[in-house]
C-alpha cells in the first residue's frame, strides 16, 4: 500500500522514496500505484519483450525493457514495456547501461489489467506522445484490441488480422490476433 504524504511531493522527493511492488508512478504531482500484474498481463509483457528484442537487439536497432521507470517532463512513469532506440539508451561514462532513464521511450506499451482505468493508462501513452514517443500501444485483452498512439496524439484502433504499427527500423510484423493468441494454451 502506498502511503500518501501529508504535504505534496515534488518529483525529486518522489524519486528518492523506496521502490514498491507493484511500482508507483508520479503523475501531475500525485503518486499512483500500478496494479499487480496478473497472468494475461505478465505473459503478454514477457512475450512482447522477447519478440521485440529478438528482432531488434542483435542488429542494435532497439531494446525492449519491462517495467522500466522513465522520468521526463516532470512525471515519472513505468510503462509495461519501454522500447528505446539503441543510440538513445542512457549509458554511464564506463559504457554500461544507466540506472536512471530520464528520457521518454521511443515506443511505449501498456497492457490493460482487469479493473484498471483505461483512461489513466491512455493518459500515460498520450503524455509519452506529447514528449516525443514515436509509437504507443494500449493492449486491451478483454476487448481483443490494441490502440495505436502516434505523434501529435493521433489514435487508431486495431483488431483481428490488422497489421500493427511497429517502431520504424525494426523488422517485425505482428497482427492483433497474433499478439492475443499468445494468451492461449491449447
Explain what you see.
The protein is globular and about 45 Å long. The longest helix has 18 residues, at 39-56. The chain is α+β, with helices and mostly antiparallel strands and 186 residues long. The mean pLDDT is 91. A hairpin with a 4-residue loop joins strand 8 (135-140) and strand 9 (145-150). The chain has one domain: tt1808, chain A (Alpha-Beta Complex), CATH 3.90.1570.10. Strands 3-6-7-8-9-10 form a six-stranded mixed β-sheet, with helices on both faces. It has four helices and ten strands; from the N terminus they run αββαβββββαβββα. This is Putative restriction endonuclease domain-containing protein. Residues 11-176 form the Putative restriction endonuclease domain.
Q: What labels describe this entry?
A:
10 strands; Nuclease_put_TT1808; 4 helices; Putative restriction endonuclease domain-containing protein; 23% helix; two-stranded antiparallel ribbon; 6-stranded mixed β-sheet; single chain; Uma2; 186 residues; alpha+beta; Restrct_endonuc-II-like; tt1808, chain A
SSE topology sketch:
Layout: H1 11-15, E1 24-27, E2 30-33, H2 39-56, E3 62-66, E4 70-72, E5 75-77, E6 81-85, E7 107-111, H3 118-130, E8 135-140, E9 145-150, E10 154-159, H4 176-181
Parallel strand pairs: 7-8
Antiparallel strand pairs: 1-2, 3-6, 4-5, 6-7, 8-9, 9-10
Pfam families: Uma2 (PF05685)
Domain Putative restriction endonuclease: 11-176
Protein name: Putative restriction endonuclease domain-containing protein
Amino acid at each position: 500500500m502506498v502511503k500518501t504524504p501529508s504535504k505534496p511531493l515534488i518529483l525529486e522527493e518522489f524519486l528518492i522514496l523506496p521502490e514498491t511492488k507493484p511500482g508507483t508512478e508520479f503523475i501531475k504531482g500525485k503518486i499512483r500505484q500500478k496494479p499487480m500484474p496478473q497472468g494475461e498481463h505478465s505473459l503478454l509483457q514477457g512475450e512482447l519483450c522477447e519478440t521485440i528484442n529478438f528482432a531488434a537487439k542483435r542488429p542494435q536497432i532497439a531494446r525492449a525493457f519491462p517495467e522500466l521507470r522513465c522520468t521526463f517532463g516532470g512525471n515519472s512513469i513505468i510503462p509495461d514495456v519501454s522500447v528505446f532506440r539503441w543510440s538513445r539508451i542512457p549509458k554511464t561514462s564506463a559504457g554500461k547501461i544507466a540506472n536512471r532513464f530520464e528520457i521518454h521511450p521511443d515506443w511505449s506499451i501498456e497492457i490493460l489489467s482487469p479493473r484498471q482505468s483505461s483512461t489513466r493508462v491512455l493518459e500515460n501513452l498520450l503524455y509519452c506522445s506529447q514528449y516525443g514517443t514515436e509509437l504507443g500501444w494500449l493492449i486491451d485483452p478483454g476487448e481483443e484490441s490494441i490502440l495505436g498512439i502516434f505523434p501529435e496524439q493521433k489514435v487508431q484502433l486495431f483488431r483481428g488480422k490488422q497489421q500493427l504499427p511497429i517502431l520504424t527500423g525494426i523488422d517485425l510484423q505482428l497482427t492483433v490476433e497474433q499478439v492475443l493468441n499468445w494468451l492461449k494454451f491449447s
